[in-house]
Design brief:
321 residues, 2 helices, elongated, 21-stranded mixed sheet, mainly beta
Length: 321
């Protein structure tokens, strides 16, 4: 049996703590109050939201991260005042929620800038609206969730221009609109490379990892899944000549809450793949989009004979920004 024991090592180019393909997620909010005839009575700044541990756990089960669908359908507001902590599971004091969209969803992306140290990213933006008179009082906190006041993804206090907590007082003749921007960050800029070591049958091999772009950035899809690695139809092994051979089976490991990574073991039965290979690519799947995120190329080819079973274990990890 031919087995790659560790497929996600420490990257040695920049930060020894960075693992590939570690994706990161962040979320930003801004709020405005309005009256009849579209009169805006308050327009606040953008402020960063805190992605909760329970929110990161949702990624392991293949939940969508796009506002408006999947994991992030509802905006919740409340009157609690504690500073957000990653270990929280919801608002301090829930008041109201809505999943009503004002306008459509918008998308944006960037290939990143290797020289500036900026990774590739894509974002989803949606505005949710509380109708006039439907949510009144002194609001201090907010958070996104998959269902009304349950299955939270993040939490934050309303902030002013200086980043300090503030109170949003909503009168009976006012409504509020909260704009949500969720950003998914790749490990590196598109086209950027990093060196890494791999353990193959107990022997250390060197490799180059390249950050890919493709449809995961440019297509206006409503779903993005970072880690659900048991979907069928992936092409995973590339020979030196560039042909691809599908694996025979894949086994997805269990997930432990708070670990923020998941392993998938891919198997090619003896005789399925025979010859020399150098590249592993397209191993992280985006739902309803191309899975081109990264590619791994060994510095020297490995030879698979017709009696070798090939197993590759891929670990995907993710975190907050």
């Amino acid at each position: 049996m031919y087995k790659i024991e560790t497929i996600l090592p420490d990257v040695k180019k920049k930060d020894p703590l960075l693992h590939l393909p570690k994706m990161s997620v962040g979320c930003f909010f801004r709020v405005e109050k309005y009256k009849k005839h579209g009169v805006i009575t308050y327009a606040g700044p953008w402020f960063k939201n805190t992605v909760l541990n329970v929110g990161l756990d949702q990624i392991a089960t293949g939940q969508s991260l796009a506002p408006g669908v999947g994991a992030l359908r509802w905006i919740n507001v409340g009157t609690g005042t504690s500073e957000p902590a990653a270990t929280q599971t919801g608002l301090d004091t829930y008041l109201a929620s809505t999943n009503t969209t004002y306008g459509g969803m918008t998308y944006d992306y960037s290939n990143g800038d290797e020289l500036a140290g900026n990774p590739a990213w894509r974002s989803f933006q949606r505005t949710l609206e509380f109708a006039i008179g439907s949510c009144t009082g002194n609001l201090t906190e907010l958070g996104l969730s998959r269902t009304s006041n349950a299955n939270y993804f993040n939490r934050q206090l309303f902030r002013d221009d200086l980043g300090d907590p503030t109170v949003i007082t909503v009168l009976s003749d006012e409504g509020i609109r909260i704009t949500v921007k969720l950003v998914v960050y790749a490990p590196m800029a598109v086209g950027e490379t990093a060196s890494a070591d791999f353990s193959i049958n107990g022997s250390t091999k060197t490799a180059t990892i390249t950050q890919l772009g493709g449809d995961w950035l440019t297509e206006e899809r409503s779903y993005i899944i970072l880690c659900y690695m048991d979907r069928s139809g992936w092409t995973s092994i590339a020979t030196e000549t560039g042909s691809f051979i599908n694996f025979d089976s894949v086994s997805l490991s269990g997930y432990s809450s708070g670990s923020f990574y998941r392993d998938a073991e891919y198997t090619w039965s003896p005789g399925t793949f025979v010859g020399e290979w150098k590249k592993i690519g397209r191993m992280v799947r985006l739902y309803l989009a191309s899975p081109d995120i990264f590619e791994i190329e060994l510095s020297t080819a490995e030879t698979i004979t017709d009696t070798d079973e090939l197993k590759i274990t891929l670990r995907q990890s993710w975190g907050r920004v």
